Amino acid sequence: MLWRIALVTMLVWAPGLTVWEQGTVTLPADLYFLTASGTVWLIHAEGGDMEPLTPPEHIVSDFAVSPDGSALVYRADGTLYLLALSDGEVSALAEGIGRAPNGHATLSWRPGGDVVAVATENGFGIIGRDGSWVATLGGGAVGDLFWSVAGSFVVAVHSGGDSI
What we know:
Layout: H1 2-13, E1 31-34, E2 40-43, E3 51-52, E4 60-65, E5 71-76, E6 79-84, E7 90-94, E8 107-109, E9 115-120, E10 123-128, E11 133-137, E12 142-147, E13 154-158
Antiparallel strand pairs: 1-2, 2-3, 4-5, 5-6, 6-7, 8-9, 9-10, 10-11, 12-13
């Protein structure tokens, strides 16, 4: 048994020896992901290096990519930001929206990409790309937000588990 452990250790630590090599994977679409440190990264479908998208001073807690892939909306320290993916320009859409509940979809683009539903500390609202509030609804903390396929209504799951 001891010699097996020694053999494995030798294979792992032998200089110049590749024990395992990762192959390439073709993605069907660009992949966006949020790291534990609060940065949104992008892996392009056509390959290449990963690239960070959000500024390092913004600790992102939730994000959503627009349906047409032209923009990313994200929440950082109680502020909602819009990031134009074409040039990397970041603009603040709304301040004081509170923190995102962990593990919930608190940002949701309407299928047409003109507005975003955003969970706030007291309910949720719908905000345009220009930062204008289209609607705000109270009713307590909201966990998950989803638009209907046609974009005609939003389903919001109340933190108590009821849909509103």
